[in-house]
Specification:
Rossmann fold; seven-stranded mixed β-sheet; alpha/beta; 12 strands; globular
Length: about 325
């Protein structure tokens, strides 16, 4: 479960970073059990933004902007980049280049893909090399940064230093930053855990691969699906297109300033229900579910299960009002 956090660039008179996110309601979710909770934080230079009401109006009315995406080659970025290019923005991906910068999606024609591919620029580099980040970005005058793979604040500092005139800095964090609690769902005002390791999108990307392997690979092989304990633990899932759309709607939206919103779906699902939903979605028969006690096994450095072994979901009431 993730929560995008929108950061807005501090004005010269202000200090620090104000945490905010998306105000408007995102488009209808593409997932039956949509619910990755997103927390967006915006850091924004003091500027007289004119609110047009709805988020879609803001996007339509906004002029083309020069955008930088930190990461962007997988998961959220695959869809976010397309949406931004379709809106007419100039998009540059900052990535190491170890994976293909763009990829053709199922159902996308070769012509559509080639047009999209030719519109995306690539700045090759390692974001952990702060000197390179500062020197390479300083002269490029990006107006907005989408940071979807940052993990620590030290990774954002060189970017902010190199781009002092940013209009927005949009950072995607994780809902794992909420402090563990027996009270559900999580609200935006809930206490956060300063020791949380779920701050960045990079960990979420690797976790996504693990979840796919756990369910769909086993279904494809005709193997049972192991579920910890009772299997009635309630969780949330989401679709990357929903998150990408939410990020686009944040662009130039003054309503997002100094607010926090959970972006999620209205339905929850149990672990057992998730296994059955995966089987149904992939066209398999009712899966064989085997419950186990994780404490009775030694998993080494691997996780006993791709989800937290507890009830974990968040309220979306604020984001849908």
């Amino acid at each position: 479960m993730a929560r995008p956090v929108l950061l807005q660039q501090a004005s010269p008179q202000s200090s620090g970073i104000s945490f905010t996110t998306l105000n408007p309601k995102p488009h209808s979710s593409l997932s039956e059990f949509n619910g990755k909770t997103f927390r967006i934080s915006i850091q924004s230079k003091s500027k007289a933004w004119k609110s047009n009401g709805s988020c879609s109006q803001l996007i339509t009315a906004s002029s083309s902007k020069k955008l930088l995406i930190m990461g962007g080659t997988r998961f959220i970025g695959v869809f976010l980049t397309r949406l931004l290019v379709n809106e007419g923005h100039q998009v540059t991906l900052f990535a190491r280049g170890k994976a293909p910068i763009t990829q053709q999606l199922p159902g996308e024609s070769l012509q559509e893909y080639e047009e999209y591919k030719s519109s995306v620029l690539h700045l090759k580099g390692d974001r952990k090399d702060s000197d390179f980040v500062k020197s390479s970005l300083a002269s490029l005058n990006f107006e907005v940064v989408y940071d979807i793979n940052g993990r620590e604040s030290v990774e954002e500092e060189p970017i902010l230093e190199a781009l002092p005139n940013l209009e927005q800095y949009i950072y995607c964090s994780s809902a794992g930053v909420y402090h563990k609690s027996d009270l559900m769902p999580h609200f935006e005002s809930d206490a956060v855990d300063p020791a949380s390791r779920h701050k960045g999108k990079l960990e979420t990307e690797s976790l996504l691969d693990f979840k796919d392997e756990w369910f769909f690979h086993r279904l494809n092989a005709g193997r049972p699906i192991p579920i910890p304990n009772s299997g009635v633990q309630i969780t949330q899932l989401g679709h990357v297109k929903d998150l990408a759309s939410a990020f686009v709607k944040v662009l130039g939206n003054s309503n997002a300033s100094k607010q926090v919103y959970n972006i999620s779906g209205s339905k929850y699902v149990t672990f057992d229900g998730l296994a059955r939903a995966c089987a149904e979605a992939a066209g398999y028969a009712e899966p064989e579910i085997v419950h186990y006690n994780p404490k009775e096994f030694d998993f080494g450095k691997k996780k006993a299960f791709p989800f937290r072994d507890q009830h974990y979901f968040a309220s979306i009431e604020k984001s849908t009002n």
